[in-house]
Each structure stands twice: as structure tokens, then as C-alpha cells.
Amino acid sequence: MPQSDVPGEKTAPTQPFPTKPAAFDRQGVSPDDLIDFTPELRAEALKIVSEYKTGPLFTPPSVFDANGKKGTLILPNATGGGNWQGAAADPETGTLFVPSVTNPYVAALVRDNKHSDMDYIGKNRDSRKVKGLPIIKPPYGASPRTT
Asked: DSSP code of 81?
């Protein structure tokens, strides 16, 4: 697993990955997730993402401006995936409909001696856009189903 770059923090070398049911939304961020409507938009998205730490699911938050990075770009975010909105079940078909929102965010740790005596506190930030467009390519929302 990707390791933390936070001084003094030690992260687990492995994480359990659920295999069933299959993931219904993206897990983590890679260049394949970036918008590619035009070569120019793709190039701008790659440039912006180079400012952040990226990786698979469970990539830890990083220190803002550590090693030139502005935090960790994370998918799904706290209001994305299937953990925020409710689901609906159809008892006749045995189908569970789980809505999903694909909306990345930046998880960054910062020193803020004015507000905390801890070494670092979390600072969640919205991810940047490319000419007003989300940096991640669509779909941005779905209602996948599981039977």
C-alpha cells in the first residue's frame, strides 16, 4: 500500500480489499480517470493532478506542500461512493439500488498552531477544475444495482 509521507506517522503496509460485491464506482485516482474530451483538456488535467499525491483506494492523506504536493486526491470522497445517500430495495426482483456520486476531493494535513496543539490537522479541499469542468471524467453520478 502507498505509505504516509507525514513525519512520525506509520501506516500499515497492507489493507484488506473487499472483492464481493464488485465495486460500483471508481476506487482511487489514476491518469485513466482524468477528463480526456480534448488533448488540451487532458494535458491541463495531467498538469493539475501532478500537484497532488494520487493512488489506489487507501492512499493516505498527505502533508500540504510536502515534497511540492498539495495533498492527496481521493475517490470516492466522503460524500461520494455509496456511503452518504440512501439505497432502495425492490423486493420483487431482489435488487438493491445504490446511488453513487463521483466527486473527488483533496485530503491534506496542515500545521495550524493557531487552532490546534496537534502536529497536523486535516484540511479537506475541493479538487481543482479544468476550464470549469470536473477534473475526473464522467459519469459523475450513477444508480448501480446489486442483485
From this structure: B
The cell for 15 is 489493507
List, in sequence order, the alpha helices (H) in the chain. 39-49
**pTM of model > 0.70:** yes
Q: Which long-range contacts (CB under 8 A, 24 or more apart) does 113-116 make?
A: none
pLDDT tens digits, one per residue of 120-134: 888 877 778 899 999
Query: Coil, helix or strand for 95?
Result: strand
Q: What is the pLDDT of residue 83?
A: 59
C-alpha cell at 128: 481543482
Q: CB within 8 A of 10, min separation 6: which ones?
A: 4
Using one digit for the tens of pLDDT, what is the confidence trace for 61-102? 888 876 678 889 988 876 666 655 678 889 999 888 887 778
Distance CA 58, CA 56 (A): 6
- CA distances to 68, 104, 113 from 81, rounded to whole Å, are 29, 10, 33
> Regarding beta strands 129-130 and 133-134, do their DSSP bridges make them parallel or antiparallel, or are they unpaired?
antiparallel
